Amino acid sequence: MRTDRLDLDQLALLRELADRGSVTAVAAAVGRTPSAVSQQLKALQRQVGVPLVERVGRGVQLTDAGRALVVGAVTVATALEEAQAGWHSFRGEVGGTVRLASFHSAAELLIPGLLHRLSRYPGLQLDTFDQDVAEQAFAGLTADYDIVVAHRSNDVVVPDRPQLRTTLLLREPMDVGLPLDHPLAQRASVTPQDLDGEAWIVPPPDYPIDRVLTAIAARSGVPVRVVRRTTHLPLIEKLITAGHGIGLLPRHTSAERAAGRFALVPLKEIRAGRVIEALSRPDRAARLAVRTVLDDLVAEAATVCG
């Protein structure tokens, strides 16, 4: 490996390739042609003297050497952002644009209060985006957004994500949503056995709720009968209200709409819930504006739990 100083722009492109998986995707993200991106990556590879990228099928992936360089690229980018953040903090400058993506029900729960908190920073603009994806897909969104509000089941091992900064926001219990005239609606709690034979309205597979349904079936010994799937929480609530089935609903998010429409009954014997957390690239999390939004997200989540 040559000892010449590595080019930060080329390192950044290598990192984008690690996150996005193709030169074409990197080119689209950085506003260059695929040819220009390829040339820069080849120049970096010539400089270090070892292969950084290898073909796998129709795509490419980084070699061990490439991944090691990406770790260094993240460290350097984070240090630069921390230095910039320290200077802005010294000058009392909290400003810029922060791009935040969130799945729908978390946005409903957190964004209104977050915007109220951020109003004390006139120079800071928060742009929000809807991204309701499968549990495993949230990490990939950090390539395009400064903050990604994600959810995962609270009964799974926390994934190893060394290239991401994770900020815990809250754990939200999931209650059984029942029509008001359902025989179980007035119960203080229900068990999996109480729910045998019910028609369920739930999100698609690969969402946190699916693991709870599997646990319910295992505990009761009866397969869960799913009659409809949708990610749209208000639709699930309306279908439950109209008597078309039951579902698992997020306690804090659905509470305001429950009164007079449907019942929220805690589920016994199974710890049903979801963890809501904020994901960011470490260098973006180091930005003063992003840190400010993250701090206020944590504060807003604490009021929800309280």
From TrEMBL:
A matching Pfam family: LysR_substrate
Keyword Transcription regulation set for record: yes
Gene3D superfamilies the record matches: Periplasmic binding protein-like II (3.40.190.10), Winged helix-like DNA-binding domain superfamily/Winged helix DNA-binding domain (1.10.10.10)
GO cellular component: protein-DNA complex
Gene Ontology MF terms in the entry: DNA binding; DNA-binding transcription factor activity
The HTH lysR-type domain, residue ranges: 6-63
Keywords: DNA-binding, Transcription, Transcription regulation
Matches recorded under InterPro entries: LysR_HTH_N, LysR_subst-bd, WH-like_DNA-bd_sf, WH_DNA-bd_sf
Domain of life: Bacteria
PANTHER family: LYSR SUBSTRATE-BINDING (PTHR30346:SF29), TRANSCRIPTIONAL DUAL REGULATOR HCAR-RELATED (PTHR30346)
Family named by the database record: Belongs to the LysR transcriptional regulatory family.
Protein name: LysR family transcriptional regulator
